[in-house]
Design brief:
By secondary structure, the chain is an alpha/beta fold. It has 2 domains: 2-138, Butyryl-CoA Dehydrogenase, subunit A, domain 3; 142-260, Response regulator (Rossmann fold, 3-Layer(aba) Sandwich), CATH 3.40.50.2300. It is built from 11 helices and 5 strands, in the order H-H-H-H-H-H-H-E-H-E-H-E-H-E-E-H. It has helices at residues 2-28, 31-47, 58-72, 83-92, 99-108, 113-120, 124-139, 153-165, 177-186, 204-215, 248-260; strands at residues 145-149, 169-174, 191-194, 220-224, 240-243. It is globular, with a radius of gyration of 19 Å. The N and C termini lie far apart (58 Å).
Length: 269
């Protein structure tokens, strides 16, 4: 029985580890630091397997362990890995404490308000208030231009409507690698939203790499049905990765944060 429980716990942790790493990466602003926190969580769970049953749902318990370690260490922002990360971290000081954590857990990781409250050790009312504050502070901070790389017309139209509804401007929508690079060259975007599997079997990942190779730091949000292709531990990993099917709240959250933390000079503050 104990051996089976150990196997079950290991399987639960293995399933959730890529998403814990995604969350840690987005929260700390640094892939190396995020992975260090994920490793600390694994070490804590190995030392005390009962931590995985503290909240009934192993996923909630795992993220709760992370937050315990995160807050105990003072919730530090890691040293920037590049200029974009440095600008992002400078902006963190303007946010209401704990609001970004609540927003990420809800919109990107898909936890309900009750689970977020359990993870962060706060009340449900506090959770709702923090999420509202985070959305308002981020959405009001900047406006910019967005390139959408998506081969499915209906999805591209939906993403465009969401982004423009937030006050941003969509410069173009691209269906292929070649179109994406050409449109980015025609007008440099402040933000890129990209699928990874495009028309004519071209790659959104390769398109983004070529665009970044030409322009340098531009924040990127990947929206994909295949998140495991990007959550591999290879460098670099995206800070913002949304699973298909997505929700409007997920897109708004990721766009707000990516715009908020961008160093692009053309953004309107």
């Amino acid at each position: 029985m104990l051996a089976q429980e150990a196997v079950d716990h290991s399987a639960a942790v293995a399933r959730q580890l890529p998403y814990l790493r995604r969350y840690a990466r987005a929260l700390t602003g640094n892939q190396t630091s995020g992975d260090q926190y994920a490793l600390a969580v694994l070490e804590a769970v190995v030392a005390d397997p009962a931590l995985l049953t503290a909240h009934g749902d192993p996923r909630v318990s795992l993220f709760a362990v992370f937050h315990s370690i995160w807050t105990t260490s003072g919730a530090p922002v890691a040293e920037a890995e590049d200029d974009l990360s440095g600008k992002a971290q400078a902006h963190l000081a303007a946010l209401t404490p704990n609001s970004r954590e609540a927003l990420l857990l809800t919109t990107i990781e898909g936890f309900g308000a009750a689970d977020v409250a359990a993870i962060m050790g706060i009340s449900g009312d506090e959770t709702a208030g923090l999420i509202d504050i985070a959305v308002r502070e981020m959405e009001q901070s900047v406006r910019g231009s967005v390139l959408v790389i998506e081969d499915e017309a209906i999805i591209a139209m939906d993403i465009t409507a969401i982004v423009e509804g937030m006050g941003h401007r969509v410069t173009a929508t691209a269906r292929t690698h070649r179109e994406a690079v050409r449109m980015a060259t025609s007008e440099r975007p402040d933000l890129i939203l990209a699928d990874i599997q495009l028309a004519d079997n071209s790659s959104g990942i390769d398109a983004v790499k070529d665009i970044l190779g030409q322009f340098g730091d531009i924040p990127v949000i990947f929206i994909t049905a295949f998140p495991e292709r990007l959550l591999t531990g290879a460098r670099p990993e995206p800070a913002f990765l949304i699973n298909k099917p997505y929700t409007e709240e997920q897109v708004r959250s990721a766009v707000s944060q990516a715009m908020f933390f961008s160093s692009t000079d053309t953004l309107h503050r």
